[in-house]
From TrEMBL:
Similarity-based family: Belongs to the YqgF HJR family.
Entry keyword set: Cytoplasm, Hydrolase, Nuclease, Ribosome biogenesis
Entry keyword Hydrolase: yes
Enzyme superclass (EC): hydrolase
Protein's cellular compartments: Cytoplasm
EC numbers: 3.1.-.-
SMART domains, per database record: YqgFc
NCBIfam families for the chain: RNAse_H_YqgF
InterPro entries: RNaseH-like_sf (IPR012337), YqgF (IPR005227), YqgF/RNaseH-like_dom (IPR006641), YqgF/RNaseH-like_dom_sf (IPR037027)
Function as written in the Swiss-Prot or TrEMBL entry: Could be a nuclease involved in processing of the 5'-end of pre-16S rRNA.
Protein known as: Putative pre-16S rRNA nuclease
Domain YqgF/RNase H-like: 2-104
Amino acid sequence: MMRVIGLDVGTKTIGVALSDAFGWTAQGLPTIKREEEQTQSDYESIAHLIKEHDVQKVVIGYPKNMNGTVGESGQRSEAFAETLKTYSNVETILWDERLTTAAAQRVLVDADVSRKKRKKVVDQMAAVLILQGYLDRQAHS
């Protein structure tokens, strides 16, 4: 039994999802609002969640360009993962997240969630999709 946390790291918010104890399903946790100069508090918030939920792995969305190259967003995710390791001694995994935000938007539109509410939960939904993709891959390997 192992809990995994999934993160959709954006410039303004961090979407967060947590697996169940069996590593089968991902549920959204409250999104972390980022303050421009308070990056340390982002890492501390995540380290707190890792400790609170006894998490063994962190899966971080890794945005790549459609041709597979790594752009600025991907480099930010790489740097975020590296720094997070200094705050918490758990394995961090970069997970290809191409299309997850678009997929999250589509799920919410299909569920008839209002535009205002979508804006509030899209990061959380993206984190859930990132983590669920990882969990599904683990289950089938």
